[in-house]
């Protein structure tokens, strides 16, 4: 993919500034010449829907409601909003501005910012690949459910199927049913024994053979993704008009239906009842930071890629505010969709809501909610639209992740194309073995969490301190006609990096009743290091192979950039 031309001197380890101010550029910013051959969005709404579709994903539906009630209900909204305002939204705005100004992907952009940090681009692409693995797996499971929903009686309604065990307990429509710690609902056994077949795998050391039913689902999903992206933003920009808007129609239908269920009010009270004492706990603030970060999604290279196809003078500031608000409001509304149903289930089981609301993650989407749907009037209809919503939410995230990889690699003028797609499909097959769910869990925990937070921390530091906050502000001024205010500068320089530092939070690694062995944790750390390691590797490569530069000179230049940044920051804070 052709590059934009930029008036810039190459060969330095950080983007150069004026001779007496290595950190900043008070002169007019370099001129970007947008080549006509680079793809552009056909309409502004194509871009907005693509960003919203990426940011609003399955995590908004299951993770936010769970984190909210676990951390104080309505009281959790206070740290959530604060973390969004001072951490999530500034980073979101930063990435949209960077991508739009430099008009390039996650790898090539570092030629213009600070070349020694180019390893961040490679690390982002690897993490985006892991995320795509995860979402394609979830979508394939949802497609299996979608196909299974076309029956007069949903297959996870009763305990009379071949995959059920003696522990299967169906309590809907029955009296005097005893629910014990060994009891399993029909929906749980359908998910674990018929869809995943994890009972036929002893764990990570014995994942078994590929489930051909899931492989066919994956092939269909992969075909949809391939043809949605094969002409870049020209095709994906049209597909998102369906995949990004349909989930909101389904959420509205499900929320109205949930509100009419008996016991729904119990779930809403449990969801929003504020527990103010929780605000004294550090873990609540850490969860708020982690939730807003993973919800908005800076650092995955997607925002850089999508905004790089914008017109140079597009108002990326307004886009950042609008899409962030839509994302946060979607998370909040999804809580009502989930907890009205959980209140209904608690009413049917004759237990407290907290006894029903223990599931989180995929279990909430594939066990708890389908179980409730199966016992509603019109269960087939609600099951079909629910899994259509899940598929479209997952597709949007997959579109974004793969677009980030494709844009980054093609901007490096590397041959890509069909070879990548075939390799991607083959690698995914490993996740559809009978023990594939354990691999998915390992990838989810170690492949994305801590590495992406560390990478975005370095990205924010490189932009604010090495490229220079004033130079970055001038870039935005050249696009929008005005300089970002003091609030944004303070957030980019200090508050947002601190926000990333407190977002690190590792939960115990568990799945169903399986205890992950010690060696699998080591493998998990290797998976995490497989992305982050490219940052120091590329730094060493750049230090060794940069012509005419010695280590002492390089160190002096980097230190000088930080010193100049600190000086300028102090000046505009004092003034």
UniProtKB/TrEMBL annotation:
Source domain of life: Eukaryota
Entry-linked Pfam families: SNF
Disulfide bonds: 159-168
Key words, A-Z: Disulfide bond, Membrane, Metal-binding, Sodium, Symport, Transmembrane, Transmembrane helix, Transport
InterPro entries: Na/ntran_symport (IPR000175), SNS_sf (IPR037272)
GO biological process terms held by the UniProt record: amino acid transport
Main localization category: membrane
GO molecular function: metal ion binding; serotonin binding; serotonin:sodium:chloride symporter activity
Compartment annotation: Membrane
Binding site for Na(+): 53, 55-56, 60, 295, 327, 393, 396-397
Membrane-spanning ranges: 47-65, 77-98, 119-147, 209-227, 239-265, 285-309, 321-346, 372-395, 416-440, 446-467, 479-502, 522-541
Membrane topology label: Multi-pass membrane protein
GO CC annotation: neuron projection; plasma membrane; presynapse
Family: Belongs to the sodium:neurotransmitter symporter (SNF) (TC 2.A.22) family.
Stored PANTHER family: SODIUM/CHLORIDE DEPENDENT TRANSPORTER (PTHR11616), TRANSPORTER (PTHR11616:SF129)
Entry protein name: Transporter
């Amino acid at each position: 993919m052709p590059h934009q031309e930029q008036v810039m001197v190459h060969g330095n380890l950080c983007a150069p500034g004026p001779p007496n101010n290595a950190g900043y550029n008070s002169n007019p910013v370099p001129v970007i010449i947008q080549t006509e051959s680079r793809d552009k969005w056909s309409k502004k709404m194509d871009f907005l829907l693509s960003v919203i579709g990426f940011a609003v994903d399955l995590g908004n539906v299951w993770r936010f409601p769970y984190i909210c009630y676990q951390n104080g209900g309505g009281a959790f909204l206070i740290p959530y909003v604060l973390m969004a305002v001072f951490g999530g939204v500034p980073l979101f705005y930063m990435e949209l501005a960077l991508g739009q100004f430099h008009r390039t992907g996650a790898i090539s952009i570092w030629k213009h910012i600070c070349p020694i940090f180019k390893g961040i681009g490679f690390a982002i692409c690897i993490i985006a690949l892991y995320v795509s693995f995860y979402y394609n797996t979830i979508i394939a499971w949802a497609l299996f459910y979608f196909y299974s929903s076309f029956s007069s009686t949903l297959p996870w309604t009763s305990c009379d199927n071949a995959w059920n065990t003696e522990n299967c307990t169906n309590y809907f429509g029955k009296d005097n049913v005893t629910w014990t710690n060994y009891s399993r609902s029909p929906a749980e056994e359908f998910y674990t024994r018929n869809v995943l077949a994890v009972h036929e795998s002893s764990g990570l050391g014995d994942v078994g053979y590929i489930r051909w039913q899931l492989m066919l689902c994956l092939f269909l999903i992969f075909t949809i993704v391939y043809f949605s992206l094969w002409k870049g933003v020209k095709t994906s920009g049209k597909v998102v008009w369906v995949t990004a808007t349909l989930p909101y129609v389904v959420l509205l239908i499900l929320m109205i239906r949930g509100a009419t269920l008996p016991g729904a009010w119990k779930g809403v009270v449990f969801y929003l009842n504020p527990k103010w004492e929780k605000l004294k706990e550090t873990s609540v603030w850490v969860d708020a930071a982690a939730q807003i970060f993973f919800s908005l999604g800076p650092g995955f290279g997607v925002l850089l890629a999508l905004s790089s196809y914008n017109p140079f003078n597009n108002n990326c500031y307004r886009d950042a505010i609008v899409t962030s608000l839509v994302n946060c409001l979607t998370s909040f509304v999804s809580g009502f969709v989930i907890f009205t149903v959980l209140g209904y289930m608690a009413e049917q089981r004759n237990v407290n809501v907290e006894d029903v609301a223990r599931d989180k993650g995929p279990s909430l989407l594939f066990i708890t909610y389908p179980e409730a749907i199966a016992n509603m009037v019109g269960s087939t209809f609600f099951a079909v639209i629910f899994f259509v919503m899940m598929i479209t939410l997952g597709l949007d995230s997959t579109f974004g992740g793969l677009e980030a990889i494709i844009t980054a690699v093609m901007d490096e003028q590397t041959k890509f194309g069909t070879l990548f797609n075939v390799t991607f499909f083959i690698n995914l097959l490993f996740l559809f073995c009978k023990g594939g769910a354990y691999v998915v869990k390992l990838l989810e925990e170690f492949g994305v969490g801590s590495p992406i937070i560390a990478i975005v921390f370095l990205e924010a530091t490189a932009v604010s301190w090495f490229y220079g906050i004033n130079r970055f502000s001038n870039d935005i001024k050249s696009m929008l006609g005005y300089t970002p205010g003091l609030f944004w500068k303070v957030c980019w320089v200090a508050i947002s990096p601190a926000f990333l530092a407190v977002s690190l939070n590792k939960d115990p690694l568990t799945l169903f009743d399986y205890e992950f062995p010690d060696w699998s944790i080591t493998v998990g750390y290797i998976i995490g290091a497989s992305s982050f390691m490219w940052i120091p590797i590329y730094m060493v490569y750049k230090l060794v192979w940069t012509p005419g530069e010695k280590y002492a000179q390089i160190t002096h230049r980097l230190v000088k950039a930080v010193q100049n940044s600190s000086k300028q920051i102090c000046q505009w804070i004092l003034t």
